[in-house]
């Protein structure tokens, strides 16, 4: 059964992928990209990667699509038909694809339990997590502790993106009660916005703090939290959202999340451990791990939520006042 | 599964990857290139998640009575990679907006023409 | 915190300084923050070199999780040298940056500029010291994303397209590396480089590993701008702000070369890389083509920054040429040139930054008679140029001497001819600048031009000083690179 769903999803992905390349309307291509992302997220669920699925759905289908739409609004939604079909890219792509297919010929087969990936390094995570970290979600334990340094790097990447977008596009505060006159008429959006806004924030909190036990964690929670505010901004106008969370506050929160994460690392060094060694944070190692993971996930959640919201503010505030 | 049947999954993923890669290098429209990058990277994620899969396994959340879990490490790597991909998309789109404002077009061919004139 | 924490502090200090910079509203304060962080990094780098020299390879298990389960930082002699290169350049461009950035960048972007600069520094250092293949990808992205932003801050609109082009090529490169690392993981079940090197021989003759090797090599080659994957480089170096050109030209591609070394020698092993995959022959061919073609293109450039950028592509060719010989002498020569070229290009781009401050242009046609008005800047440019060409008593001569002798002992005598010939081409393009600046009559606009301020001249001359010192007494640097090369090759032979 799983194989069947897996195959159907892959075929759908292929159809969507080809259509995106052929599509001349960028708006349509963006919508298809969002669908592509949702299809991948479904595939991840089938392949037992629930954490990844949640992230892909929130980031790929959610935030990326919003950014693409904002960019199209600022530029154009028509792609000019190319004057020629260039040969060189086609050749490059075919060679690259052939090289990869050649590479698959000696691969362990799909789902094979004897594949090297299932025999070395990973079994130890599955075996030791209950004893060393004391939480059931192994993805969280690897992400936040065993490979917690990668996650710090990842946070630095998203921080870089936030700082970069701010540098490139600058920031303008939107005065007044500005709201798109078109959207003002959309009663449904406003009602749904009002109804869902608290629910989304609640859900974000759940995802944030339930990440130890089920799928979730700082990244997913941060993105969901930001999505809630983006919905609010869509329904009630950017100006009102900015009054709720002003830009300056966002800037402080972006930096605070990063510093919290690094601070946990430094603190564990000051207590005589290595960088990010949570064991030393409390009297017994497992509570130390718990404390460390909660703190760094909080740092991740804060920075991710505020970077996402900041990027959204920056893109939207670039639009001329009239056609918000 | 036996023989080449065990690999067809990877082959479709490779076709997906190359679809995105083609859009990046063959399309003159800058937004289309960013979309291409997104497809390219998302497909690489599928490759990673496919290799983490184990026949008869479940999601790597420890529960009593379950012995076989899929490999959590690629999941962690891809969580990171998804965020990296978003960062790249955001930055790329910000550049596209600035390029549109500076050149009045987001078509690579037209931009080159203007750069030659400078 | 103890001396043993230095490897990680090295990377964490700029990483922590970046958000602090974002919070500081006054551009001067942001600059001071970046300055302090970069000088702390330099101090740590010097201590690290000294420690590696004393006790050998350092290993640091982050989070106290031992490799391969956790992420390991690993610094051997070659790594320590790389850290030093990045730290020296990073520390010296900062005092220079304040005036130059005030002149070239809008005030509201200044604080963000220093934030991105610190992130770039952190990313480059992280790439060097990490012993984990995936962590390498993460820090590669930190350095790449921040350098796209830094480049886009150039004053002309072309900076935007240069940054965009680099973003597209850089992301393709990074994704190729990700695919390669994924395939490696698939066949071995590990991401730690040392662990990979131990587990790879078992599966080395599989087609999957060969594909992994190809993808990693191509991906890294894009980042280090190996000919013909260098297209992003000339535009990026030309249109970036002066400080950024100097910093990125001197460090980013060099770190790329170092990553390639790590993969060839540490991860895949010399036997696989050079005997089975024949990467030596391919690299040698590309290096030779790159040296000749890029040098010739440089001769015809009218923008001095663009000229130096093409010269960089050629110089990367020299470094790769040394590595492609796959001998201790060759790799050591490549690393000597890696260090020297970082110092030379850093100095030359800083000198151009001084000129840009006063002229507002890096075009050759605006520099008529410049030497009379900016004697110190032009003298630094000439000294750097002589070193680039490889005149005796400069560091460039040392590089070429070791490269030529490595070529001779490997039996590649035509390469010696190539090195001589390309040096002559180098002489031609440097002479074009000298001729215009020293022997042409100054234009009417020129009488207002003054010498650059001391805060900018001193860092430039410090880098020139390092060049001249290495030119006269190269024993220190050759000692370090010999040790570094022996460790790399030694690991490969085991």
Described by strand count, sense and barrel closure, the largest sheet of chain B is: none
What shape does the CA trace of chain B take? Answer: elongated
Q: Note the total helix count of chain C.
A: 20
Largest interface, with counts of residues having CB < 8 Å to the other chain, equals: A-B, 97 and 83 residues
Number of helices of chain B: 4
**Mean pLDDT over the full residue set of chain B:** 87
Structural class of chain C: mainly alpha
Low-confidence stretches of chain C: none
Q: Could you tell me how far the N terminus lies from the C terminus of chain C, measured between alpha carbons in angstroms?
A: 35 Å
Q: What kind of sheet is the major sheet of chain C?
A: 2 strands, antiparallel
Gap between N and C termini of chain B:
60 Å
Number-wise, the strands of chain B total 0
Question: Your description of this structure?
Answer:
Chain A has 324 residues and is an all-alpha fold. Chain A has helices at residues 2-22, 26-46, 50-74, 87-104, 122-132, 138-146, 148-169, 181-185, 187-210, 218-236, 238-244, 247-270, 285-317. With 118 residues, chain B is an all-alpha fold. Chain B contains 4 helices and no strands. Chain B is elongated and about 70 Å long. With 494 residues, chain C is an all-alpha fold. Chain C has a domain at 300-494. Chain C is built from 20 helices and 2 strands. A two-stranded antiparallel sheet of chain C has the order 1-2. The mean pLDDT of chain C is 90. The interface between B and C is medium-sized, with 32 and 27 residues.
What's the arrangement of secondary structure elements?
The complex is a heterotrimer of chains A (324), B (118) and C (494).
Chain A: H1 2-22, H2 26-46, H3 50-74, H4 87-104, H5 122-132, H6 138-146, H7 148-169, H8 181-185, H9 187-210, H10 218-236, H11 238-244, H12 247-270, H13 285-317
Helix pairs in contact in A: 1-2, 2-3, 3-10, 3-13, 6-7, 7-12, 7-13, 9-10, 10-11, 10-13, 12-13
Chain B: H1 8-26, H2 30-52, H3 72-103, H4 108-117
Chain C: H1 6-23, H2 27-55, E1 58-61, E2 72-75, H3 77-104, H4 107-129, H5 133-152, H6 158-188, H7 193-203, H8 207-223, H9 232-239, H10 242-267, H11 270-276, H12 279-299, H13 304-324, H14 328-359, H15 370-373, H16 375-389, H17 395-409, H18 413-439, H19 454-472, H20 475-493
Antiparallel strand pairs in C: 1-2
